[in-house]
Design a protein that fits this description.
Layout (H helix, E strand, L loop, with lengths): L2 H12 L2 H21 L10 H21 L4 H14 L1 H6 L4 H22 L2 H7 L1 H26 L3 H12 L3 H13 L9 H27 L6 H28 L7 H24 L5 H17 L3 H24 L8 H25 L7 H10 L5 H7 L1 H8 L4 H36 L6 H21 L1
Helix pairs in contact: 2-3, 3-4, 3-15, 4-15, 6-13, 6-14, 6-15, 6-18, 6-19, 7-11, 8-9, 8-11, 8-16, 9-11, 9-20, 10-11, 10-20, 11-12, 11-14, 12-14, 13-14, 13-15, 15-18, 16-17, 17-20, 19-20
Length: 475
């Protein structure tokens, strides 16, 4: 092997897989853009293809750079979107039609909900016990209620919009919790023996389902204010029932179509079917004015389908790979919704007060939720800190109300409420994502026990000595 080949091999071994994947997607997107550039004028500066190309490439690079220094990558993606929409000349070159932006965010929402549904394991919830249910429900509803009350008092939102905002904020994000737990596991902290890992991962996924379901109820009521009172009352529960029924039906259909066997072709067909049915559910229900039913049906369909399949790694892998592109697209587009001209200093400081007061109550609720477990006091405090990070759900559904308002040509006051929700959602991501990950990393040595590796190292040493003795005898 030549020196050049040796250096190349050394470089690629040391380069993280995540970086290589990002470069692969950048090359793919660039090649597609060049093809579009020579075939259509929409790829010129000011066109939608050019805007999406710049947004996704810059968001991928920003996320990769922050990932290297162990900062949640979605922060960089958000900041890229904010910069593109607030720098005058750049804003003109990267302008994007509101309908296109809305549809792309809806597609990204469908991907992340499907990813959550496929990863949710009911057996883990049963194994850990009632603590998962308490951790999913109690902090979510406590924070949403506190946030709603504070929003009415300080942000002057109507009650239904205040609770809508509260449930946007209340969801925790597994996208930050899981990497932090993996890192702590590598550092030999005792988080698996006492079921902390299983509890946090299972409860975080279930927490997202609870928050999204409650959000959809509030969304339905918020956009049905022009209907008779009895229709406003039943709209939310009706949409939940429709979403659950539709998702269950589609999931059962996916059990039998295509027939279950070990052939890879079936997995590919399953992947195509679940993606197409997810898109049909979200956009179809929105067209029928059941905006909350579509996203909920995607979660239920994915959960039902994977339950019937047992395990289909190809479907999960494809959805995960789609999220590699969906993540920068979603966070970048949400960042674009932040317009500095609509944000005043008064709104900013009031929002910060609401956020920190609600987080304080959330910490107390999370500690109370795990109080009836075998965890030590320090471990319960760590679980509370782990329940701070927010990102994915806030980006996914935070702008959904604005998308619905744009689609329905809603009144200006409704659009203003929707913009407030987007602004608060972005602020909570920028604050809680780094805060939660920092607290998890830096308080772990103080709050968690380390695995005793002395015995293992002694055993390994004895085995090495025995091997050396055997080698000497053979010589």
């Amino acid at each position: 092997m030549t020196d050049v080949q040796s250096c190349q091999g050394c470089f690629f071994k040391r380069c993280p897989d995540r970086v290589l994947k990002v470069f692969a997607y950048i090359i793919l997107i660039t090649a597609l853009y060049i093809t579009c550039f020579v075939t259509t004028t929409l790829s010129k500066p000011g066109g939608p293809i050019f805007a999406l190309f710049v947004l996704v490439i810059l968001a991928l690079v920003a996320g990769m750079l922050l990932k290297i220094v162990r900062i949640p990558p979605m922060l960089g993606m958000l900041l890229v979107g904010i910069a593109l929409s607030n720098i005058p000349k750049v804003k003109e070159w990267t302008s994007l039609d509101a309908k296109i932006s809305s549809d792309l965010k809806t597609i990204s929402l469908m991907i992340i909900l499907m990813k959550g549904g496929l990863s949710l394991d009911i057996m883990d919830i049963k194994r850990v016990g009632f603590a998962v249910i308490r951790l999913a429900f109690l902090p979510c509803f406590v924070e949403a209620t506190v946030f709603a009350i504070m929003s009415v008092l300080l942000l002057k939102l109507p009650w239904i919009w205040a609770f809508l905002l509260g449930f946007v904020i209340a969801a925790v994000t597994p996208a930050i919790i899981v990497p932090c737990l993996d890192e702590l596991k590598k550092r030999k902290f005792k988080i698996e023996e006492n079921n902390i890992t299983t509890m946090l991962i299972s409860a975080s996924s279930f927490d997202d389902v609870v928050a999204i379901s409650a959000y959809m109820v509030c969304l339905s009521s918020a956009f049905s204010s022009d209907k008779p009172l009895y229709l406003q009352i039943i709209q939310g529960p009706l949409e939940i029932l429709i979403g659950i029924a539709l998702g269950t039906l589609l999931g059962i259909v996916l059990w039998v179509i295509p027939p279950a066997n070990s052939d890879k072709v079936d997995s590919r067909i399953r992947t195509a079917l679940i993606l197409v049915l997810g898109l049909c559910s979200v956009f179809g229900m929105s067209h029928l004015n059941f905006n909350g039913s579509g996203p909920l049906s995607v979660i239920v369909m994915s959960l039902t389908a994977i339950k019937g399949w047992g395990e289909d790694q190809l479907v999960t892998d494809v959805v995960d790979k789609l999220w590699i592109l969906g993540e920068p697209l979603l966070f970048g587009l949400v960042g674009r919704d932040i317009q500095f001209e609509f944000i005043t200093l008064e709104i900013l400081w009031k929002t910060l007060i609401v956020i920190f007061v609600a987080l304080f109550f959330r910490l107390g609720a999370a500690f109370a939720a795990v109080s009836w477990t075998s965890l030590t006091v320090k471990e319960k405090i760590f679980v509370s800190f782990s329940w701070i990070p927010k990102a994915t759900v806030q980006a996914a559904i935070g702008s959904y109300a604005l998308a619905v308002a744009v689609e329905k040509n809603a009144d200006e006051i409704v659009v203003e409420y929707s913009r407030t929700i987007v602004t608060v959602a972005v602020l909570i991501i920028l604050i809680s994502a780094p805060l939660g990950s920092i607290l998890m990393y830096f308080t772990a040595p103080l709050l968690l026990e380390r695995i005793d590796t002395g015995h293992c190292q002694l055993a390994e040493g004895e085995e090495e000595e025995e091997d050396e003795q055997e080698n000497d005898e053979n010589v």
